[in-house]
Design a protein that fits this description.
Layout: H1 2-16, H2 23-49, H3 54-86, H4 100-124, H5 131-151, H6 157-162, H7 164-188, H8 192-198, H9 205-216, H10 218-242, H11 247-253, H12 263-270, H13 274-298
Keywords: Membrane, Transmembrane, Transmembrane helix
InterPro entries: LysO
Transmembrane segments: 6-24, 36-55, 61-83, 104-126, 138-154, 166-190, 202-226, 233-255, 275-297
């Protein structure tokens, strides 16, 4: 098990060691990463079609999804407002219209890809023995590209260390999410390390679902994907509503997506002062997602 985890972790490290200066190469890598995510999610749908007692397993996936989502969200949202009281962040009160519906649809299309994979697997009665091996190989390439993206995201170690608020927000999310994962694991009667792995997605639904599905199976992978997707969708709703009064809460709950997907919402609703905090917090959590998931799966 440990050697398999190290093999999966290696491409991420190798990718992180590669600095890229040319914008067109980075754009190519970003495009290919998005395409690989869609391919692996379609394969996830196919693997779900191969499960025995599918209706029962879908019920288990939904049970896991909502138990983890509620446990982690409650723990996050109990702690983050205290950070707003102790260390408030100034925001701008100028609001601009945002295409939130379009952003929701962008997230929703990934659910459609998984569903299409499931439907194809059920209707065509395919031999699905190849799916797991294909997913593993594509995952290695995806992790390599993710490592390159993290290295070339524009954040230096100095910038991260100097932005103490971003670091603290990330630390609060880390601790409270893991606590929520332990609570969910106890409620569900599953191993604690599985609960900790499930709690380590921090909103990065595509990578969390893929890594956990590869390490713990399709049921956990499907639940991890839906859990983190629900987090992102709730964050898109919460940020415009909360950021002026509770900016640290809004930024923190966005998790890993605060450095990319939800960053435009944070900037437009909270102002430019929120941006460095969001980028640092999101970067740290993004970096921790593959590290923690792979670590907890290996225990």
């Amino acid at each position: 098990m440990l050697s398999g985890i190290l093999l999966i972790f290696l491409p991420l490290v190798l990718g992180y060691l590669i600095p890229i200066k040319k914008a067109n190469i980075l754009e190519f890598i970003n495009t290919q990463t998005s395409r690989l995510v869609l391919v692996i999610l379609a394969l996830m749908g196919l693997s779900l079609a191969g499960l025995d007692n599918l209706s029962q397993n879908l019920g288990q996936i939904l049970l896991y999804t909502f138990t983890f989502f509620i446990s982690i969200s409650v723990c996050n949202l109990l702690a983050l407002p205290w950070l707003d009281r102790l260390w408030p962040t100034p925001t701008s009160h100028i609001h601009r219209k945002l295409p939130l519906t379009k952003m929701m649809l962008e997230s929703g299309k990934l659910v459609v890809v998984v569903a299409l994979g499931l439907i194809v697997g059920l209707l065509l009665n395919l031999d699905l023995s190849w799916v797991e091996k294909a997913s593993e190989h594509i995952l290695l390439l995806l992790l390599f590209f993710v490592g390159i993206q993290l290295r070339n995201s524009g954040m230096t170690l100095r910038q991260i260390i100097l932005n103490k608020k971003g670091v603290i927000i990330a630390a609060v999310i880390l601790v409270t999410s893991l606590l929520g994962g332990i609570i969910a694991a106890l409620l569900l009667g599953i191993p604690i390390n599985n609960g900790l792995a499930m709690a380590s997605g921090f909103g990065w639904y595509s990578l969390a679902g893929i890594l956990i599905g590869d390490g713990l199976g399709s049921i956990y992978g499907g639940a991890a994907f839906l859990n983190e997707l629900l987090r992102e969708m709730l964050a898109l709703i919460m940020i415009p509503l909360l950021i002026n009064r509770y900016p640290n809460t809004a930024i923190g709950y966005a998790g890993a997506t605060a450095m990319d997907f939800t960053l435009p919402v944070i900037q437009n609703c909270g102002g430019i002062r929120c941006v460095p905090i969001a980028i640092v917090s999101g970067f740290i959590l993004s970096l921790l997602v593959p590290i923690l998931i792979l670590f907890f799966i290996s225990l």
